[in-house]
Amino acid sequence: MVQLLTQNNMPDNMTVFDVVDSTMIKGREMLHAGMARPFAVVANQQTAGYGKFGRQFFSPRGSGVYMTFVFDVPAGEFDAGLLTTGVAATIARVIFEVTGIQVALKWVNDLYYHDRKIAGILAEGVMTAGQLTQVSIGVGLNILATVVPSELRHKIGALDVDVDKNAFVRQIFTALQADFAGYQQGAHLDYFQAHAYLTDRHVSAHVGKTVIQGKVAGVGSHGELLLVDDAGVSHALFSGEVAKINL
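^ thats the sequence. predicted structure below, dont judge the formating
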């Protein structure tokens, strides 16, 4: 019996949907309708879930939880790299607290378990009159193994545990609210570094149309990936994607 999210025992600022096109889209609609922040949108299934670069995010009913959290951001400088790495660290910590499983954090926005992606994180800024005023944080987390398309079988995994999904997503939202203010001070970076998936691995990193091959040295003070290329030159990557890990 697959346990599904319901509205039962949820706080007023968490809205549960059984099926949505995308929790990110739904979160934007609710923000524009004036919903007070912070708030969360969670669903059992997405029909048009998306991740980085607009890629489809496989979101079947019942096997995972699909979440969007909307926060106001403080005025002034806001570091997206610290936000994304911070959210990853918070969710990894909650997963450990709930299940005893320690997942790895793959820069910049994925969680890994047994060398498979079990969660993706996406942050989108909301601009008002040219200023960043809110951020929407989307998280898709695979809890139970499911039948996945053949092209994804070597990439996607799951925690493969039975959890109370309502309690789980409440705990994630509570932890995000508690940790949010500390992200910009890098309070999470030691945790991220300790559980970083890529450190000491040889990778191919894509930054725009440039491909850099080298060994990952760790994560910097702004959540950037530190990479020493094959010629011995150091790079700090604030954006981009690690497309290949050379095991």
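The helical segments are 23-32, 80-99, 165-183, 189-194.
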